[in-house]
Predict the structure.
Amino acid sequence: MKLAARRAILGRCPCCGEGKLFRAYLKQVENCSVCGEAFGHIRADDAAPWLTIILVGHIFVPLMLVFVALTTMPSWVSAVLWSLVFVALSLLILPRAKGLFIAILWLTGAGEARQKLA
């Protein structure tokens, strides 16, 4: 589980670790280009944004509170700065969260079960 999760977080195939998991920012590949493992049927749907919101909130709020307590910056500068930090963290974490959920669904076989129901 740890190895597959680590590979997927890095954007690699959770099976072999060599092929790419995404063909674009959040578009997963249908099959691994190296080992041929199928990922096109696996849907992470709302799990990745949910995890991203949880992680960004737990990272963002403490950083912001400490920074605001230690500095005397104008409100507008602080608002712009923290908006940029929030967006950057979200964009950085979202594909990694999706990769993690794809790896979990692939390992547990939940993607195949959902495909059979459809």
The CA atoms of residues 82 and 96 lie 22 Å apart. The two ends are 27 Å apart (CA to CA). The longest helix spans residues 75-108. Residues 2-117 form one domain.
